[in-house]
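re the bet — no i am not wrong, look at it urself. input seq straight from the record:
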Amino acid sequence: MKAKNKINKELKEKFFRLYNKGTSLRTIAQKLKVSPNTVKKYLLLQGINVKSKNIVYDVKVKDDLLIGLYCGIWAGDGTQYLDNGYRIKICCHSQNKELIKFIQDLLINLFGKKSKLVEEERNRALIRFNSKFIYNYVRNFLEYKDKKTYTVHLKHHIDKYSKQFLRGFILGLMLSDGYLKERFYFNTTSKGLAKDMTLILENLGFRYNEYIHDRTKQGWKDLHSISLTKQNSRRILGIFDETLIETGYTKGFSKLKGYIEGKSGPAVI
């Protein structure tokens, strides 16, 4: 590993000259063998207005709960693709402002990443952002093929993940593809994700019911529907509320998830 340069007057002047020529912080840092934050620090001290591209190089905190939470939300409602950049989208209902803010705060707290909200027709809203790091990061934990919705699942058996990650992951799945009022329901067209859910429920000490809706006649993928009894639903709601408190959110799952007025049943994919 090459030694980093000591900061001196000559090096600071190089920061200034290169940046004024339009050289990026990262390129300056690589060229002069310092960190991007060091370059930024001394440019700011010289009174230079540093433009920030909000590039993510790593997670801000090594927090398994938050990592699992993001992976669960993305597995349920996220998409990503290459289109002049590493584009990532998380779909939400536009009226659920509470959940939208929660997800955007999660991106900042975990990755330091700002995002845009784009509202579309039929109450659909997209949380959008670009990040090569986050794009690749989920592949440390999840696997999926071209049709992500039908194929996404945990990369390894649940035994390979920490308890905190799994608590965050199941909460994320429920915030995206789950329903919990009087009873817990989780619906997915991914056989692997359904298996992950049942294994996590078993790990938490819950007995569940699983029903597979055969939809081949309609030309659709089979729907895996997983549910709990009313008593166990109340128990797992308590777990979700405790988990949310650990993230800093104190209003509770029911407030955060939100449901469209008049809609009494779980969503069907």
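see?? The domain at 64-257 is CATH 3.10.28.10 (Endonuclease I-creI). told u. also Residues 63 and 112 are 13 Å apart (CA to CA). so pay up
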